Amino acid sequence: MHREDSFLDSLGEGNDVQEDSGLLKVGEKVRQLRKRQGLSLQQLAEKTGFSTAVLSQIETHMVSPSLGNLIKLAHAFNIPVGHFLTEGEGGLVAIVRRDERKIVSRYASKEGVSYGYSYYSLGADMKDRHMEPFIVTLEPSATGHTEKMSCHEGEEFLFVLEGEMEVKLGKLTDILKPGDSIYYHSRIPHLVRCHEEKAARILAVLFAG
User: Which residue of 8, 76, 94, 184 could cross-link 47, Cys pair, CB 3.0 to 4.6 Å?
Assistant: First the structure.
C-alpha cells in the first residue's frame, strides 16, 4: 500500500472516534457570545438571516450548525470561525490523534434523527489559523428536509475519501467519486450531499475570509 493510500484510509476511518467525549459544544459558545454582545435572538436573527427558532435550537443543542452557517455566525459576531471550534488558547502546532478529534454532529432533534450531516475538526488546537480543515460525513437525511443552497464569504476545497458526493454549484451539478476534488468560491450558491442515498466521507478545507 502506498503512503498516500494509507494516509487517506486513516482519514476515512471514523469508527474509532468517541463522539461523546470529543463533542464540541458549539451552541453554548453561540449563546455566550450573543449575551456578551448584548444581542437578543431577534437581533442575531436579523444579522444572520436565520430564524429565531433555528438560533434557539442551535443554542440548546437541538441542532448543530452546518459549516456554512457556522461561518455566517462568525461574521455576525465579527470573530474568526475557529472560535467555535477551539478549546483553550491553542498553539502554533496542532497534532490531532485519531481518537482526539473534535466532533460537531448535526441532528434534527434531541432524539438523534439524522440530518444527513456530521463533521469533526482537524485544526481545533491551532492558534490564529486561517484555514479550517474537517472530515465530513454525508448521510441520507431521515427528515425529508429539502436542503437549501448555501452562500457565504470564503473559499472551499473538498476531496472525496469514500462514497460519492453530489455537488451543486450555481447552475453546475456534478457527481464526485473517491479521489475527485473541487475548489470553489463559497459566495457562489452551493449544496453538497451524498449521492443515491449512500453515505460519503470527504476532506473539507475552508477559508472563511
Answer: 76
Residues 6 or more apart whose CB falls under 8 angstroms from that of 140 comprise 114, 116, 194, 197, 198, 199
Q: What pLDDT, on a 0 to 100 scale, did the predictor assign at position 169? A: 95
Given a cut of 50, whether residue 80 has pLDDT beyond it is: yes
Query: How much is the pLDDT for 16?
Result: 38
Domains of the chain: 3-207 (2.60.120.10)
Residue 136 to residue 193: CA distance in whole angstroms: 10
Rounded Cα distance between 137 and 117, Å, is 6
Residue-wise pLDDT tens digits, 32-45? 999 999 999 999 99
Helix (H, G, I), strand (E, B) or coil at 17: coil
pTM (2 decimals)?
0.75
**CA separation for the pair 146, 143 (Å, rounded):** 9
Within the chain, strands assigned E span 102-107, 114-121, 131-138, 155-162, 165-169, 172-176, 181-185, 190-194, 200-207
Distance of alpha carbon 165 from its chain centroid, rounded? 15
Q: Which three cell numbers stand for residue 71?
A: 461561518
Evaluate whether 164 touches 196 at the Cβ level (below 8 Å). Answer: yes
Rg of the chain over CA atoms, in angstroms? Answer: 17
Can you tell me which residue has the cell 467519486?
177
Q: Are 135 and 119 in contact (CB under 8 A)?
A: yes
